[in-house]
Amino acid sequence: MTTEQWQASRNNLKAAKRWVIKIGSALLTNDGTGLNRAGMQSWVDQITRLLDAGHEVVLVSSGAVAEGMTRLGWNARPDEVHKLQAAAAVGQTGLVQAYETAFAQHGRHTAQVLLTHDDLSDRTRYLNARTTLRTLLDLGVVPIINENDTVVTDEICFGDNDTLGALAANLVEADLLVILTDQDGLYTADPRSNPDAELIFEGMASDPQYAAMAGGGGALGRGGMVTKVRAATLAARSGADTLIVGGRIDNVISRLHQGDLVGTLLKAGQAPVAARKQWIAGHLQTAGVLTLDNGAVNALRTGGRSLLPIGVIRASGRFERGEVVECRDEQGQLVAKGLVNYSLTEALKILKTPTSGLEQALGMVAEPEMIHRDNLVVL
Ligand SMILES: Nc1ncnc2c1ncn2[C@@H]1O[C@H](COP(=O)(O)OP(=O)(O)O)[C@@H](O)[C@H]1O
Ligand SMILES: N[C@@H](CCC(=O)OP(=O)(O)O)C(=O)O
């Protein structure tokens, strides 16, 4: 590839509306002597500029264990899981305090979001996390996600925050995942042991050669490059490109935003919306059937619209909010699949109901759509 082609890809990133930015332990923790507050303020200043330019940012931040160790006066990372969990619990408060203080300089609020594996594999919790994050973004608040280290066990933890960052990118359907770390990007081999290794500027997330180049992490980080490259493949499932880049590069986030050629871009390789829909279609089993009138079938097929309760004439199966249901026409032909916003019991109460009648029928309105168009795959 030529420099012009690389540059063209970077220019395209300016269109990325929703960013997930992951900041790793290796960067955040000043070589184990507390939080790198100057670095944090600089990233926060740059994130604020992104927000002011109309982008949305979800932050995934490590650093709880390292900050907890500093607060507790521990020099070495303990091996016992319970001690690590205790350190994370102590450190997490310091971490969010530091971010809240840094964002307060710009009059912005932050929100602490602690997630576990279970939260993202259980459909209802997945959808609730998704709705909360979307609501926070709408409010202009910066969600700061970390793993809920207190409750996880070895078997069911993300462990590294690269994976969590990728799953967060899936969760909020981000356009771009930025992984800030202590190296300038992905090199052809681990630069700590290979001084001749070269920086990769761009590739496809699905290309297996990158996993072969990636090695493990340093003393503070958990996953190394292996988990960052894997995160890029996970993020690509919902259409997000991934940028692995050095957090110590001057003004790194602003430079990415301007299209500067820094770090390694691992491209998702398919249009985000198509990828997202494929993700819905492929990852969740159907739990029920909604029968649509002709108007609703047309709205979905030709108008690319959301499915409203008024167009649903029958509902069957056993489904809860957040499960995938089939949408069929009156002849029984499959029209679409999507994530439903209401349980079967609720759906039965709002068949053929206009939006204005939902509150009376249900006593509350979760969402005006039976299925939002972003969550609908027309077949
Ligand atoms: N091919 C590679 N290119 C760049 N860095 C690599 C590579 N293989 C392994 N690494 C190592 O990965 C480390 C970053 O991962 P990690 O320590 O987990 O940091 P973080 O806390 O930011 O996730 C780097 O310090 C680097 O030594
Ligand atoms: N949840 C842990 C983060 C784990 C971690 O260090 O991950 P990473 O930054 O990907 O190497 C913490 O806050 O300490």
TrEMBL record:
Database matches in SMART domains: PUA
UniProt entry tagged with the keyword Kinase:
yes
Q: Does the keyword Lipid metabolism apply?
A: no
Cross-referenced InterPro entries: AceGlu_kinase-like_sf, Asp/Glu/Uridylate_kinase, G5K_ProB, Glu/AcGlu_kinase, Glu_5kinase, Glu_5kinase/COase_Synthase, Glutamate_5-kinase_CS, PUA
The catalytic activity, as recorded, is: L-glutamate + ATP = L-glutamyl 5-phosphate + ADP
Q: Where does ATP bind?
A: 22, 181-182
Q: What is its EC number?
A: 2.7.2.11
Name the UniProt key words of this record, in alphabetical order. Answer: Amino-acid biosynthesis, ATP-binding, Cytoplasm, Kinase, Nucleotide-binding, Proline biosynthesis, Transferase
Q: What does this protein do?
A: Catalyzes the transfer of a phosphate group to glutamate to form L-glutamate 5-phosphate.
HAMAP family with a match to the protein in the record: ProB
Give the record's family classification. Belongs to the glutamate 5-kinase family.
What is the name listed in the Swiss-Prot or TrEMBL entry for this protein? Glutamate 5-kinase
**Species of the source:** Thalassolituus maritimus
Q: Which gene encodes it?
A: proB
